[in-house]
Fold this protein.
Amino acid sequence: MATTVEPVTGQPFTLATKNRKAMELRAQARAIRDEILDESKPMTVDEVKKKQDVMNALEARANAVAEFTADAEIERQGGMGGTGVTPVVGPENRSDGRLQTRKGRMKMQDRINDLAIRIGNEFQDIRHFLSVAVAGSNPVENDTQRRLIEEARTLTRAIVGTAGDVSGGEFVLPLTQVQSIFSLANIQQGLLQRARSYNVPGRTLRIPYLAQTDDGQSSTVNNRPMAGQIANVGIVGEGSTKPIRQPVFGQRLLTVFKYAAITQVSDELLGDDFTGELPQEFVNAVGQQTLNAVNEDITISGSDVSGATMPAGALRPASPYNIAVVRQTAGTITTQDLFAMYAQHTHGPNSVWLASRRTIQAIYALSLTAGSMVTFLRDLRGLPEMMILGYPLVLTDLLNTLGTTGDFALVNPDFYAFALRQALTVESSRDFAFIQDLTTYRFVVRAGGIPINTGRYAYKYGTTSGIDEHSPFVYLQ
C-alpha cells in the first residue's frame, strides 16, 4: 500500500496494487474449466459438479483477495465524490436516489429531447448554457444546472449498442474488463510431432545404420544397397569360391543446437493485469514460436545437409536424401503429381502428406473417374480426417504456398531422427532489467535433427545403377 496526493484536490488517498495471489487463483480456476471442457476426458455428472464447485470457489476467493468489484474499483479511483470517477446522472437516476422507471426505459433520442427541454427551461438560451458548461465564463448558479451539465456530458460519452440503431441500448464505459485474454494458438504441424525422437545426454548423438545406398564406386555397381551393399547373390558351382562381402555400416552424427529468445514486460503491466493470464500468454506465444522455429528447420528450412551447423531439413530442395517431383501443370497440383510422388516414396505405417493450407483448393478439386481422391474417415467422437491414397493429409504453414517448390510433400517420419537435449524451458527474472522496471522471460530449447538416410534407396538389378529410386521424403517442385 502507498499514499499519494490527488492531483486536482490535493487530498491524500491510498493506492492499492493488483493482487498477484488473485491471478494465481484465477489461473487454477481456468485450468479446472479447461479440464471440464476437454472432451477427451470423460466425466460423470457428479465429477463435473464437484469440479465446477471448486472452480467457482477459486474464482470467488480471487475476487475477494483482489477486491475486484465495481464498488471497490470506484473506491480505488477516489470514490463517487472524487475526480477519478464521473457519477452517472441521467433521467433514470434522481439526485435523491429514487429510480424513475418511465424515463429509465426511454430511447436515446427521447433522452436527448427530454434533456434539451430541461436545459431550455433552466438556462436563458443555448449561448448561456455553452458559456457555463463549455467555456466556463459564467459560474454554475445552482445544483440543477450542475446536474444538467453532468447529464449532457454523460450522454455525449454514451456508446450505442448497435451501430446506427439508437434503440439498441447505450452504456457508459464500464469499470470492468473481461477476465481472459483472447489469443490464437500458434502450433504448426511438421516433422517435430512425428519424427523418431531420441533423448540426448550430451551435445551429439551417433546413430549406427546399415548402409542402404550405393557408395558410388564403380566396382560395386552390382551391389544391392537395401541389403547393406552386399555383393550380388548368384549361382556358383560345387567347390567354387563364393563371393565374399560383408554388409556395410555407417554412423549418422546428430548435433544438438540451442534455440533461445527473450521477451520483456513492464512491471506496471503485470501489476495492472486483472486476468492473471499475462505470464502464461508470454509462455504460449513466445515459447510456441521457439518450438516452431525448430520444427521449421527440421521440416524444410534447414540448409545444412550434414546437420553440422544447423538441423538438416528433410524437404530441403536438392538434398541427396530426398526426391523432387516436377509438377505436371505450373501453379497447381494434379492427380498425376500425387501418383508420381506416391510411386517414388519409401512407404511406412506412419507416412503422411504435408500440405500448405493454400493447396486446399487444388487438392479438393482432384478427382478420379469414380469421384474425389480425397476421402474423409468419420467417427462418433472426433473430427473427420482427410486421407489421400490411404495416408492422412496434414495442413501446415511451414510449407511454401501453392505453385512453389515445397508446397506439397509425402514424408515417412520414421526416417528422420530428432534429438532433444533440453525441453522448452521458461524462466523469468526481475533482476536483469530491475532499474527499468522490466520482468524478463527467457525461452530456451536445445534440439536438432537429421535424416537417417544419406541418399535415395533403390533395389538395383543387373549391371544398372540407380533404377527406380525412392525416398522417405518426396516433395513437389
